[in-house]
Amino acid sequence: MDATNPPPGECRQCWHHAYAPREAHGHLAPREDCPACVDHMLHGHPAHMVVSR
User: 12, 19, 38, 50: which has the fewest Cβ within 10 Å?
Assistant: First the structure.
């Protein structure tokens, strides 16, 4: 999988965090939640981050 090129309908940020976890989450302490991931879980994906079809 390419972390920088999500398929249509997918969120760019979520795709990157799922397929490049060391790059996206490497700065976090063990068991520390990623603020960006938590924001998406609570508020959904911003329309500008979802790849158009």
Answer: 38
45 CB-near residues (< 8 Å, 6+ apart)? 11, 13, 14
Q: 3-state SS of the chain?
A: CCCCCCCCCCEHHHHHHHHCHHHHHCCCCCCCCCHHHHHHHHHCCCHHHECCC
Tell me the C-alpha distance between 52 and 6, whole Å: 10
Question: Residue type for 26, please?
Answer: G
pLDDT tens digits along 7-49: 999 999 999 999 999 999 999 999 999 999 999 999 999 999 9
Compute the distance between CA of residue 7 and CA of residue 29 in angstroms, rounded to an integer.
Answer: 30
